[in-house]
Design a protein that fits this description.
- With 605 residues, the protein is an alpha+beta fold.
- The protein is built from 13 helices and 30 strands.
- The strands form 9 sheets. Strands 7-8-9-10-19-16-15-14 form an 8-stranded antiparallel sheet.
- Strand 1 and strand 2 form a beta hairpin.
- Helix 4 crosses helix 13.
- The protein starts with 7 loop residues before the first strand and ends with a helix.
Amino acid sequence: MSEKYWPTGNEWVAIPTLRESDAAIESLNFLHMGLKGLVEVCGETGQAPLLRPIIRSQGCDLDLGPLTWRRTSYWIPAWSCQTNDIFCEGMLLAPIGERGFAVRLQIENLSATDLELQVGTQGVWHQTLQTINESKPLRGQAIVTESTWNQGFAFEYAGTQALFAFAPMFDQQPDILEVSQIGQHIHYTFMKNLTIKPGMKQTVIQYWGLGYEEVSAVTAAKEMLRHGFEILYQRSIDWLNQRVLNSRYAPVNSLMNTNLFFNLFYASGLTLDTEERVLVTSRSPRYYVSAAYWDRDSLLWSFPSMLLADAEMAREALDYVFTRQIRNVGTHSRFIDGTVLEPGFELDELCAPLLALDRYIRSSKDRKILKDAHYANGIAKISRELTRWRHARLGLYETFLQPTDDEIVHPFLTYNNVLVWKTLQILANFSADLPDFLPQGREHYLSEASQVAAAIRQHCVKSYQGREIFAWSIDATGNWNVYDEPPGSLLLLPYLGFCEPGDPVYLNTVDVIRDPGYAYSFHGCKFAEIGCSHAPHPWVLSMANSLLSGRIVEFINYLPDLKMDNGIACESVDEHTGESTTGDAFATCAGFLVYAMAQAFGLEA
């Protein structure tokens, strides 16, 4: 049986591989602008983890046995277990606003005699990886030094100069403080001797700081130590609770809020070296295209729930998009610094920044944002770029890649052109504020939007099995196909405002792609959601699409068996079991699922 994980983290540090079986941390990571992605600090794969809790009695490590897990405020993971006469509780806290994390171990003596134990952690820093879609070893030097800043040790990684460091501090100075280095592998054990009276509890807390070099790492840990665990815990709980989304349907709240915080902390984060907020597909290397930027993923999927939970964070995200990322807007994928990772034009990605900006303005009522130079220039750039992709005769806009990032069958996608229709309406709305940047004016954009809508009805509506449907895509010579992709689904046309839910052409289209005869309908399965050739199983994004299309009862029926990636959104699930089949730890998908649940089940004021 594959290992399950309880990911956690904050804006600085992500801990994606906290193991369910033994509460060990296999790796942690942080964002680094200079290295264009994630830096992973890892234990030895399949062997010694980066850090694991230890309870030692009479020289032997106790088998903690099956752990019982929970999350506080839907995010902070904690576990408990009982072995012999010991009850142990552990918590991993990545405090909001702090460059690091804390491990708390609390031991209760259930016996009638004193217990002599050693309690703490042990691990190995085995390798350091740069992760952008794939994880590859960095070619620097890992070193450990005695540090006067914490009367202990600091772990530092350097190339020609320091790249990062991490260091522990303790609420009680360890009795065992062992560190050894063999080549590039650094082993460490930090244990406290405890004598616990019958019926009493004792606690051991370790604070691990992250920084650019030794001093910044140690003082990050010292900052947490000075505040103390309870203060950090309460601050984090307060921050999380202020952002919790409460639906009118209680069973969805746990799934919704855990994925909300996974989206906030794994689809976004702060870079260690430049302290900038960046957006990524996922900060978990378990997702197969992690640590890179997609306009579509970040702005159409992640952004709506980010805006629901934290408007200030959403504004920072938009600032990043319209500065770092705007130069190559619409290009398949980019590094976090905005340079091109994977080339290829995608029409949905070109539209995404304006759709997100419009959503932000409608929510915040702040139109002054349009006057900021980087927004005004970015809006004008998108307007200019759109015209390049317009077919003069058809009046439709083409793309090179589909919403799955796979190559097109035909260049004109119905869904994409609906996004263009909506984008043109947004440009019309913005034009009065930006006469120098959108000189064509409001009427021009409204006229073009109307022409696109007419072109979709004229060219993209086809007769199929005696009924009119929306084709997935067409070309300029009459070819077309029946298909759908959850990352940009025809199910969303009413949600986007293009047609009414009762539109006959739309209803016929839905019937076709949900029909048993359609290869990716999964009709009759426990999870009867749409898949596609990119991942031929029901997609979690399709569940979100369905919620936004009114299929609420079906989703409620899924809930008891919807396992995904241990409760975290993934790309697709097994149509019979609800277990993840592709794309574990898919953070931007988690965001869209949260938004869809919030819309479907209603938010309490």
